[in-house]
Specification:
This protein has 15 helices and 23 strands. The chain is of the alpha+beta class.
Amino acid sequence: MGPIPLQRDIVHRPGSVVAGQGDGTRQVARTSLPGIPQASSAARRFVRAALADWTGLGLPSAGEFGERLTDDALTVASELVTNAVVHAGTTVELLLRLEDSAGPEPAALVLEITDHHPARSVRDSRAERPDPAEYGRGLQLVATLAESWGITYRTGLKTVWARLPGDDSYGLPDAAQDEEAARRRGLPAGRAPAPTAGSAERDDAGWAGGGGLSFLAEASGLLAGQLDEDLVASTAGRLLVPRLADWCAIWLESEAGGPAAAPRLAGVWHRDETRSELLRPALEKEPLRLPGSVGTGPVSLPWPEAVGRGKDAGAALAHHIISGGRTLGAVLVGREGADHIPDEVAALLADFVRRVGLAVGAARAYTRQATISRILQRGLLPSKVAEIPGVTSALVYEPGDDGVVGGDFYDLFPCPGGRWCFVLGDVQGSGPEAAVVTGLARPWLRLLSREGFRVGEVLDRLNRLLLDDAMEAAEAAALMVAAAGGQQIPDGEQIQDGSQSRFLSLLYGDLVPLPGGGVRCTVASAGHPLPLLLRPDGSVRPAAEPQVLLGVVDDVAYESQTFELAPGDSLLCVTDGVTERRSGPLMFDDGDGLARVLAGCAGLPAAGIADRIRRAVHAFAERPPDDDLALLVIQVDEDRHTAVPGSSAGE
């Protein structure tokens, strides 16, 4: 029998951190959902059906779940399943557990959502604010609705769970129920939570006071954290239905714009889940386009026949989604069985849609920046790496999660004289400044290498070029200051454009296949993590000497080391995204950690070594890597001799 998997729990309760959960289970329901966008809708249907079944069976616990708590359960299930699908992309298991009352504690519903990608940890924003582009704000909503929630890590699995207490105010007078509901939502005594929709009997007066302000505050936080316009629309729809409306639809204009482009239906939401999918085809046929003259004000529209007739008819209201003076889409909301939407609700809708516009505008700006960064990154990296006779190479490159172009780059290319050159570099910083250096360094390296300069000479000349370029940038910045009459350049431009040094750590070498098998390798390291040589017996040693960064001093002469790679030998080259991967105060390479992992890779092919190092780096900390990660494995084949094309040239 293998070892029992280690289980780690991270549990969150208001004001405290505890371990463990209560017992008293009466009923369990579970289902498996594919990792596709429709999984959240299927999860909501499953939760609704399970609660209905339990209520039909007359279980006492189920009877303590009112409409508000049922809505909370649907919201939590939807958020957690969406989180698992977006960030794990695997099959998702959803489990519901109904717990009986225990002493003074009311009954509770526990939801567990499990995915199969434990390396992508879910982070609590109270401990450390995550990157909204990566994680969004779904867990903030879960933390608001749940009495407690937590994350459980097992081997190969990650489970996020939330515990929703039963409504122990059931049967109390209305005023007492409001006080109890306010206590559960963390509101001051005397302030009831914002009313929910879903029936003709709404307490719309509550929106005119603290309920409306509370709703807008919650909406602002949730919408601002979504940097994808479809997630903005999805979040907005869930906030509107069923709180303010029985159904809503959101259209988004094309980013390219133009009068001929029809708006895209981003989503349809109905308090009856089964009707959402029926509404979508009908509303897609008639995209909503409001006249530009209406501005940001509400527009009353005829009740869409696709939504219903007779008793299902009601009032419909539409708003433009506007950001920065541009129309980005429209929101259409409806209330069944009503001849109009009250003024206080219409005013709240207008404030809400303005927040949706700001969120969509921010999401589009972020998407444009991320797209430009990806295009720039592709242009700065080679489209393919060279294949070397008798040598197998494996490359791993993972840019950081910040959405901007990174500072790591690589290359592997042929040179005259039967040589192949390899490069692994890391520019200080990231973003446009790093992209400038990468855009200079990689073509310079290719040019110098193909001109026949030896390894050390290539670094000498690249160092001189970087220093000259930095000097020219500094002189240009000085001219900017002089042109401004000696005044400080605003926004730190003087520092960014002139005096910031362009430092570059670089590992550069060449490979020359030998007639009798094996490869002669010459390598130099300039302020870069040293390459490691792995022998077939598992021994590991550094294959270069440390030297100063490029672009720092001009009176340095770089030296190289030459050695032979025998059949079966492997050379590992990495950037500091590997060696300096952090877990609290510790780094991955502390105590020669990288060498220890590499020693355990003896006997693996090049691709196997690269994958094992990559997985070890990811597993070193719960957080995903926030720095670029690049590694190159060069392994001499054992099963054949190398054909030498042409003469060799080395140091």
